[in-house]
Write a structure and sequence with these properties.
- By secondary structure, the protein is of the alpha/beta class.
- The chain folds into 2 domains: 241 residues, Type I PLP-dependent aspartate aminotransferase-like (Major domain) (Aspartate Aminotransferase, domain 2, 3-Layer(aba) Sandwich); 136 residues, Aspartate Aminotransferase, domain 1 (Alpha-Beta Complex), CATH 3.90.1150.
- The chain has a 7-stranded mixed β-sheet with strand order 1-7-6-5-4-2-3, sandwiched between helices. Strands 8-9-10 form a 3-stranded antiparallel β-sheet.
Length: 390
């Protein structure tokens, strides 16, 4: 957590008061929540009334995918088609799959190119043929594994031609790229606190007021009656402070992190035969100077190492004090190739030797040096161990 966000959270935690209560402490808590909502809206170029606080990104994605689908099918039973990119986080893929199984939705996985970028021609063809029966489109702003930034503006333009609302999982983008809800044209957008220096367990769905949403949670009718449950006042305040600091530091921090990313990628390619960068090839640190046109997240480096198992690489690096991932943390411990890499056309055996390195506010040149110092021997040992039995 950003120190300022942690301080703000602790300060509010010292107080009492349910923001839904009418007594003095409750009104004081409500004031904190609504001031936080106003500031979050201003930071994201959204109206305060469009910010629906949730328990994190996964809950917000579920509310968007299920809530929009249910609302659309209630208005028009023919609209049962759900279009999602093939590289979405499971917080979008799994609700879509559940809708297919439980509600009879027709889920279409939209293809991507080798860099993980959505194929707009495929989206256009799908909408041209089935626009009248499509309930929603969900395409992430930036990919959590390979860092690819998606063409959100173009997606929105295509979908809106057919009257189809668009949701974007922007968990990886908010706080790391310039994000304007109003300018994007999106109907709904998800973000989460712990990805930008806030606490775990808080996030939000930013949704247009006129967008129909059927609740997933029922109870007290909080958050414009689409997300019941007592609002976590302290977390809401910490989320707001974290986002404020992240956006204030964004221009300089993006350049710094892109420099660390590029140094790691160049060093790994030079030191380890068969090291391949997955996702878009960044234009050096200059990619971060034009964040509006960035093709890759500044702090993401995703590499595959031929002849290795990702888990072996991860544990060998972990034993040296280096924490990285084989993909999404939500899928950690699952010994299978990433669906993101497979969707990009990566050979399954190569995809198994994947590592994702993520850089943040506390990352330094010394961290890059430590990784590059350890990586050649680690890869050699992993290759000597051979692939796991299949």
């Amino acid at each position: 957590m950003h120190p300022d966000a942690l301080e703000a959270m602790v300060e509010v935690l010292r107080r009492t008061g349910n923001p839904s209560s009418l007594h003095g402490p409750g009104r004081a808590a409500r004031r904190v929540v609504e001031e936080s909502r106003e500031q979050l809206g201003a930071l994201l170029d959204a109206r305060p009334s469009e910010v629906v606080l949730t328990g994190g990104g996964t809950e917000a994605d579920n509310l968007a995918v299920k809530g929009i689908f249910w609302s659309r099918t209630a208005q028009d039973p023919a609209r049962r088609r759900v279009l999602v990119s093939a590289v979405e986080h499971h917080a979008v893929l799994d609700p879509a799959a559940w809708l297919a199984e439980a509600e009879g939705a027709e889920v279409v996985l939209l293809p991507v190119d080798a860099a993980g970028r959505l194929r707009l021609d495929a989206l256009e063809a799908e909408l041209a043929e089935h626009g009248a029966t499509t309930a929603l489109v969900s395409v992430m702003w930036a990919n959590n594994e390979i860092g690819t930034v998606q063409p959100i503006t173009e997606v929105v333009e295509l979908a809106h031609r057919y009257g189809v609302p668009v949701h974007a999982d922007a968990v990886q983008a908010v706080g790391h790229l310039p994000v304007s809800f109003a300018s994007s044209g999106l109907d709904a957008m998800t973000f989460s606190g712990h990805k930008l220096g806030g606490p775990v367990g808080v996030g939000a769905l930013v949704a247009r007021r006129d967008l129909g949403l059927v609740p997933v949670l029922h109870g007290g009718g909080q958050e414009r009656s689409v997300r019941s449950g007592t609002v976590d006042t302290a977390a809401a305040r910490a989320l707001t402070v974290a986002l404020d600091r992240a956006l204030a530091e964004l221009p300089a921090e993006a350049v710094r992190l892109a420099g660390l990313r590029d140094a790691l990628v160049a060093g790994a390619r030079a030191a380890v035969e068969g090291a391949v960068l997955r996702g878009p090839e960044p234009g050096g640190s200059g990619d971060a100077h034009d964040l509006d046109g960035a093709v890759r997240l500044p702090g993401n480096a995703h590499l595959t190492f031929a002849g290795c198992e990702g888990d072996s690489l991860l544990y060998l690096l972990d034993s040296r004090g280096i924490a990285c991932s084989t993909g999404s943390a939500c899928q950690a411990g699952v010994p299978q190739a990433s669906h993101v890499l497979l969707a990009c056309g990566v050979d399954p055996d190569e995809a198994r030797g994947a590592l994702r390195f993520s850089f943040g506010r506390t990352s330094t040149d010394a961290d890059v040096a430590a990784v590059l110092s350890a990586l050649p021997e680690v890869v050699e040992r992993a290759r000597a161990a051979g692939p796991a039995s299949r």
